[in-house]
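wait is this the right file?? whatever heres the structure
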């Protein structure tokens, strides 16, 4: 099922073709010279998002990512490969008291700059295009 998207990604797996999302570095945490994480602020932008709720957290992330890859690799209203932006963001959801994680996760893909004004529509109705306000992200 994922053969075509993986082949498309492999054909387009040139690091120069990966667009890094513009951000402002807020904090950088290192230990013994190794980067542990960065706290970044991304500006207001449009993202393709999918919320998944499988039995296992890792399964939700994997399935959500695969659905987004189909959108990126031509299963969209433009019929074109959209290009890769990094990082792909995973949002972990908590209960109302914020005392425990829930099974639900959101996997999100930043739409490349050239698509921000008019993003292609996904064929998969589980994927939505959302405009996020300036957002704090922890990246590793």
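ok assuming it is, sequence goes like this
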């Amino acid at each position: 099922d994922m053969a075509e998207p993986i082949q498309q990604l492999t054909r387009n797996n040139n690091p120069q073709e990966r667009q890094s999302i513009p951000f402002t570095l807020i904090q950088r945490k290192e230990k013994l010279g190794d980067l542990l994480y960065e706290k970044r602020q991304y500006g207001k932008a449009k993202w393709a998002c999918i919320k998944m709720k499988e039995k296992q957290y890792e399964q939700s992330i994997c399935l959500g990512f695969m659905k987004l890859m189909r959108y990126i690799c031509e299963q969209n209203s433009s019929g074109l490969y959209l290009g890769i932006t990094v990082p792909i963001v995973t949002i972990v959801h908590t209960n109302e008291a914020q005392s425990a994680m829930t099974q639900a996760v959101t996997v999100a893909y930043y739409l490349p700059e050239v698509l921000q004004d008019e993003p292609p529509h996904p064929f998969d109705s589980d994927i939505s295009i959302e405009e996020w306000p300036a957002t704090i992200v922890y990246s590793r």
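Residues 54 and 60 are 5 Å apart (CA to CA). so i think its the right one actually
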